[in-house]
Amino acid sequence: MSQEREPIAVIGTGYVGLVTAAGFAELGNEVWCVDIDAEKIAGLNAGRVPIYEPGLEASLAANRERLHFSTELGPALEHARLLFVAVGTPPTYSGDADLSAVHAVVDAMPASDRHALVMKSTVPVGTGASIKRAFAQRDKDGFRYVSCPEFLKEGTALADFRNPDRVVVGDDGDWAGDAVVDLYAPLGAPLVRTDIASAEMVKLASNAFLATKISFINEIANVCEETGADVLEVARGMGLDARIGTAFLRPGVGYGGSCFPKDVSALKQLAGNSGYHFQLLTAVIEVNELQKRRVIQKLQKHLGSLVGKTVALLGLAFKPDTDDMREASSLVLAARLQADGATVRAYDPIAEDEARTLMPGVEFADAALDALAGADAVVLVTEWPEFRELDWAAAAERMPGRLVVDGRNALDREAIAAAGFAYEGIGRS
Ligand SMILES: NC(=O)c1ccc[n+]([C@@H]2O[C@H](COP(=O)([O-])OP(=O)(O)OC[C@H]3O[C@@H](n4cnc5c(N)ncnc54)[C@H](O)[C@@H]3O)[C@@H](O)[C@H]2O)c1
After folding, report:
1. Is residue 259 flagged as an active site residue?
2. Looking at ligand 1, which atom is closest to the CA of residue 37?
3. Which residue's CA lies nearest to atom 33 of ligand 1?
């Protein structure tokens, strides 16, 4: 199989780059991975995977002979004609995407009629056009460009690679677009082949729509709390409508992560830069920020002032099954609690190392029940499966307080009540 599959390069070995590399190596491609982080590359060469993503370590190990890791671009350019770009595009202070890593990659490309950049990084609409202009100005217009946005979800990223809802390929109708289509063909996914700008917009619009759905159900939850309805019943009743669907109708403590916050803000900013005020996204962002803080009001409702109180946070990663702490709601929550004079204790099964550097002053525990010791209240922030099994009678023995705030509506509220706790969910009276 490997003789028939063409070698590819992946530039940037983070969540997207490593999953793309592992996925194509599984399909039989030789994959030449490049990263500027020498420590990361040394670790990968020694078989150490720098991130937590279910199944990734096993997949990389099983396909080790087809994977090459280097800080040098040379071998990648020599062996591959398709160079997948998966470098970070974090937000700047203005809300625009920071494209400096993308530009560094573009600048490092030689003049070539044989190569193509395949953009997996999420970039503003118009980025492909500006990269093509930059190539042309430097007499590198033989270099081809393809937009191939990535839709993987951290936590199920490999499964998403193997079985994508769709593959989007935006290109100029040349050999490079055809080659990317061929690469993905074995996955049998629906293909959207389109122009570059439209492909770029598919990614931003998809994330903005999902974030809108989350903020929408969070607002419905808040109204449910005022009116006596139960948002879980409401979401079930809404979701059965095929036009609406059940996905992303789960209220909680707001969305976080490395994608939604920055992509929503980048689309809003992109619209603003072109003279259009994207009112809906402005509200989506504001609702999300307020939602992260509503937990504080729930705590105050039961505890009064938070000065001198101890609050335990269960789960810190922005969602379960990842160690990613980027824009996690737990960061805002811990900082707000500390600012209000509370002591914060915390536990996360995977993200603790990352969290320690981001959450100064927080006391970390090695197990969920240990985090509850001495706590006046506990807040479920990230719904790791192990928290569903928590022994609430044992929790009651460790906690002087009797309050559980279930920030994801994931806990067994009967068991919690039976152990003598007051229960506060999101959008449930
Ligand atoms: N993480 C996700 O769930 C996800 C999903 C879809 C799309 N995306 C998009 O994919 C892109 C990458 O995201 P990520 O989460 O994998 O980022 P990441 O921060 O995990 O990884 C980026 C990697 O790029 C490397 N890098 C930076 N500059 C480089 C350069 N000039 N040459 C080579 N390597 C370089 C970094 O060292 C790092 O290892 C972003 O644009 C993101 O928005 C991410």
Report:
1. yes
2. 37
3. 35
